[in-house]
Design brief:
The chain is an alpha/beta fold. It has ten helices and ten strands. It has two domains: 2-117 and 296-331, Nucleotidyltransferase, domain 5, CATH 3.30.420; 127-289, ATPase, nucleotide binding domain (Nucleotidyltransferase, domain 5, 2-Layer Sandwich), CATH 3.30.420.40. A hairpin with a 4-residue loop joins strand 2 (12-19) and strand 3.
Length: 339
């Protein structure tokens, strides 16, 4: 079964083709809408949906050429049906269902968060189940116990800003533009991470929940006081990483797991990767990340997640589709558990 996949949950338009039986990603492309939204300082949902509709036909033709396949070689179509921006999801879902209907192929809506968690399985060193997952992106910050595909237990999450959101907002305060997370990390290389003693949020409270709104306010105060932007960036980044290391250590102790998966856009942060590698080596365990290009939103992870469920017999109804702006991981079941 070769799966064509479409991802359109926010401001990346992505298409991929995955050969399930061979476990091979044949082709994938991502078009970023950064230029579309930069002038507004954030994603404009209506503009995102329109750009998805404009980009998907050409991107799909390019992907099929990249893979060296005709549409007759496909076995199914997968698409992101949530969580995300409703209009953006509808644009991708309608396109994917149209392709499936025109070719008489089964289609399946996939959970975007499940795609992120499974993305490391596309790498050369895929993690075995069970493992602890840290999902860190612009919209989500969650610690999840993963016993298998569709078997997820939420251990903790951000009670306010997601980590990626805190990075972007802090970057904006320093005039780094949008999206600013990567720019903040670049600036941090020039600063002193010990210059400003930001409080590591919620580490003295029981439980595994996270909070970053207070840290963002501390950044506002530091910038207003005239502190070096490079020092603010470095100190902010170190504080976030310190907090995650402490919370992840607690979660690993609580679950008894020795494998860690880190996924989502913030998983591309190299200082975070280095600290977590060191932590897991010290604990005698292992940490797994997606390839850098598969940390941000992409269709390769949707193709894999879709294949694992399609091969178990899951299918959308032939007519219509459903998108979900909110769709928690713990609402999912293992592949094939629901007909």
């Amino acid at each position: 079964m070769r799966v064509l996949a479409v991802e359109s949950s926010c401001d990346e338009t992505a298409v991929a083709v995955y050969d399930g039986p061979r476990g091979e990603l044949l082709a994938h492309r991502v078009h970023s809408q950064t230029e579309v939204h930069a002038a507004y300082g954030g994603v404009v949902p209506e503009l995102a949906a329109r750009d998805h509709m404009r980009r998907l036909p050409l991107l799909t033709r390019q992907i099929m050429m990249d893979a060296g396949l005709g549409f007759e070689a496909l076995g199914a179509v997968a698409y992101t049906s949530g969580p995300g921006l409703a209009g953006a999801l509808m644009a991708g879902a309608a396109f994917a269902k149209g392709v499936a209907a025109s070719r008489g192929l089964p289609a399946l809506g996939v959970n975007h968060l499940e795609g992120h968690i499974l993305a490391p399985l596309l790498g050369d060193d895929p993690p075995a189940f069970p493992f602890l997952a840290l999902l860190v992106s612009g919209g989500h910050s969650q610690l999840i116990e993963v016993q298998g595909v569709g078997r997820y237990r939420l251990l903790g999450e951000s009670i306010d800003d997601a980590i990626g959101e805190a990075f972007d907002k802090s970057a904006k305060l320093m005039g780094l533009g949008y999206p600013g997370g990567a720019a903040l990390s670049q600036l941090a290389k020039q600063g002193d991470a010990e210059a400003i003693r930001f409080t590591r949020p919620m580490i003295n409270r029981p439980g595994l929940d996270l909070s970053f709104s207070g840290l963002k306010t501390a950044v506002v105060n530091a910038v207003a006081s005239g502190a070096s932007h490079a020092d603010v960036a470095a100190s902010f980044e170190k504080t976030v990483i310190d907090t995650l290391v402490i919370k992840l250590g607690r979660a690993l102790d609580q679950t008894g797991l020795d494998r860690l998966v880190v996924a989502g856009g913030v998983a591309a942060n190299r200082p975070l990767r280095a600290r977590l590698h060191a932590m897991m080596i010290e604990r005698g365990g292992a940490v797994h990340f997606p390839e850098i290009e598969l940390c941000t939103d992409n269709a390769a992870m949707i193709a894999l997640a879709g294949f694992l469920r399609l091969q178990a017999g899951e299918r959308d109804p032939a007519a219509g589709f459903c998108v979900r702006a909110r769709w928690p991981l713990n609402a999912l079941t293992p592949p094939g558990a629901v007909g």
